[in-house]
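Note to self: user wants both folds in one dump. Writing first protein now.
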Amino acid sequence: MEQKDGKTGRFGECSARASRFIASRTIYPTFPSSRLPVNISDVLGAVTLPFVRKSSYQVHTLATAIVSASDVKKSFIHMGRTLEVLRGIDLEIVEGEILGVVGQSGAGKSTFLHCLGTLDVPTSGSLKIAGEEITTMNGARLAELRNRSIGFVFQFHHLLPEFNALENVMMPGLIQGKTRGQMERSAHALLEEVGLKDRVMHRPGELSGGEQQRVALARALVLDPKLILADEPTGNLDSATSDQIHELFFGINKQRGTTLVIVTHNTGLAASMPRVVTLKDGRVEKDVRREGSNYGSPREKSENS
C-alpha cells in the first residue's frame, strides 16, 4: 500500500523530486548588470518562527522595525566597469506595514528588493532584517534568516509544473523535511483563503495566470513569514485580475498583520497604498505616508471615499 507521509510514497517523495527539479533551474534577478543566478530553492524553502500578529498597523512609533537600511549601496562590475545601482538608501519599515516601491526602470527597485530578501547583499552600508545585520553574514546565515522570516512573490510565479496547486503550496515545508500531514491542512486553508479551494488538485498548466499567482502567494505564506516581498506581482495580468490580486494583498495584511513590500509600476495599486517610496538613480527621492490612510483594500478605500 502506498504511504503518503514520511519519506515514502508519492507525497513523501515531493521533497526529493522538487530538489532534483530546482537543482537544474535558476532565477535571474531583474537587475541585468549582476547576472547572479538565484536558485529557486532560495525562495521556496522559507521557514519562519512564530511571532505575534497585529490585527492592523496603526501607529508607526509603537511598532518594531523589520527593515532598517542606512546608507545602503550596491554596485556591480559589468564589462570591466563599476555600475552603481544603489547609491545610499536610508529607509525603515515597521512590522505590519504595507509599503509600495515605485520608480522608473533602472532606479534600483528590484536590486533593493533582492537585498531585502538576502538574495544579494549590499556593497556597503547597514541593512538589518528582523533586527539582524545581514552585511556581516555568510551564505549559510543569510539562507537561515531568509528561510525563517521572508516570503517571495515574483512577476513570474515559478510554480513547479509537475505538482498540483496543493503540492506547490506545501513545497517549502516538504523541502524542509516536514511531512504531508504537517503541511496539508495549512496549504488547504491558504488555497481556500486565496479563492482556490476548488482548484487544489490542478497543475499550473491547468490554471489561469491569476490563479497561478494566487498559488504563488499561498506558497509564500505557508510557513508564516514576517515579511513578504513582491516584485511586480501583477505585471503579467490583466487589469481585472490585477485588482483581485491587489485585494488579496490588502486582505492578507489586514487579517494576518504580514509586512508587505511591493515593487510595482501599477499606478492604481501604488495610489491605494498607505506609504509609497519613490526611488530615483539609486536613492530615495520621496517617502510619502498618506494621512488618515488605513490598511484596507483599494475597493474599501473607494467605497469609503
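First done. Writing the second protein, which came from a different request thread.
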Amino acid sequence: MKKQTIRQYILKALAVLLTVALLFEIPCVHVKADENEIGFNYTTKKIYTGKSFKLVLNNAPAKIKWFASADESIATVTKKGEVTGVAPGTVKIKAKCNDVKYTCVVTVIDPYIKVEKNYFKVGTTMTATMKGAKVLSYVSSAPNIVSVDKDGTLTANAKGVANITAYCKNGKNYSVEMHVYEDIKIIENPTFDDLAPTTHMTFEELVGDTGERGYPKAMPTPDTYRITVDLYWKVVMVYARDKEGNYTVPVRYMICSPGASGHNTRQGVFKMKGTRVRFARFKGLTVWAQYWSLIVSATYFHSILYNSGDANDYTTAYNNLGKAVSHGCVRLTVPDARWIYYNCAPGTEVEIRAGSSKDEETKAIREQLKLAPMPSKRTNMKAGEIPWTDNWEIDEVPQDFEYVYVPQ
C-alpha cells in the first residue's frame, strides 16, 4: 500500500465529518478555500464614480495576457488591473491567464449624502455624512426649515422641505431632500364637524378618486391612535392619548358598514397589519375598493365599492353606509378610508366590539353622522380633480414610523 499524504488524510477526515453531519444533523462546518487557489482578490466590488481599486490575480501561474471591461462607460481597467468607476451601473471586469478567464463584478455608484432618513420632527437633529467624496461645505436651501453646520449636523427648525447640498473637493456637489414635520395635530375644543368632516362634504368628495397612487412613506408611531369599531351603531371612533396616556382624546368619527349576517366582522382587539392597497379588485369578486388597510386576517378598512378601477363606476354600496352589509370588512367613505391609510401605522390597536343599544354616547355620535345623498343622475368625476375639503394634508402627518410595504 502506498504511503498516504497528510492531504489525503485530511480529505478523508472531512468526508467522514460531512457524512456524520448529514446523518445526525450536526451544524455544517465552514472550511476555508484552498490557499493555493487561483483567482481575483475580489469577485465582486462596489466603488464610487471617480474612485479606483486594483484587481490582482492571486497565485497567477503566468503573466496576465489582458484585462478588459465589458462596458467602459461604467468602469475602465488598465493593463495593470487598475479599475476606475465612470458612471453608475454594474459591469464585468475580466482577465485572461494561461487561456483561463477570471471575472470580477463591479458595481459603480455615485457619491451621496447619507442620512438615517429624509424626514424628522421639529426640534430634533440628525447627522448627514458624505459618502464617496471629501466634503468642503454643506449648505441648506432653507435654513429656517433645516439648518446645517460645517460637520453635517442638521437641525429641524420648522415644518417644510429643504435641500441640503454638499460641495466637494472633486468639484461636484450632491444633494438630499429633507422633510420636517410637526407632531400630530389635535384640534382644541373641536366641533362635531371637526371630528366628522365627512358630514359637510359633497358626494363627489365622499366617493371620488384623489388621483394619488402609491403607499405612505412613513406614519405616526403605532401607539399614536387607538381605533374603536362599534358594530351595533356602525361607527368608527379614533382616539389619541391624553396627558395621562389614556386614549380619551377624540380625533375622528366615521360612519361604516360592517359585515352582514353570515359574514360577521370579527370581534376582538387587534394590532393592524402592514398591508395597504390603494385601488384594487377583490379576489374572486367583480368589485373594487379604495384605500385598503388590513386589520386582521382578511378584514380591512376600505372605501365603498366600485364596478371597476374608475371611481365613476361607484355602486349603491354608498347608500348602505351605516348598515351591516359587507363581507366582513369595514367599509367607509373615501376620505375616512384615506385618513386611516396614511395616519394609522401597522401595530395600531383596533378594538371591534359588539356595541349596545344602551350606549348613549356612541348613539349620539351615530345620529349626527349624516352624509350627502347620492345623486339620482350619475356624476362624472375626473381622478385628481374632485373637491377636497378634509381638515388634514399628507405633508402634515408625523413621520416617526417608516412604512414598509407588505403585499396581500
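Dump finished. Worth passing along: The longest strand covers residues 100-109.
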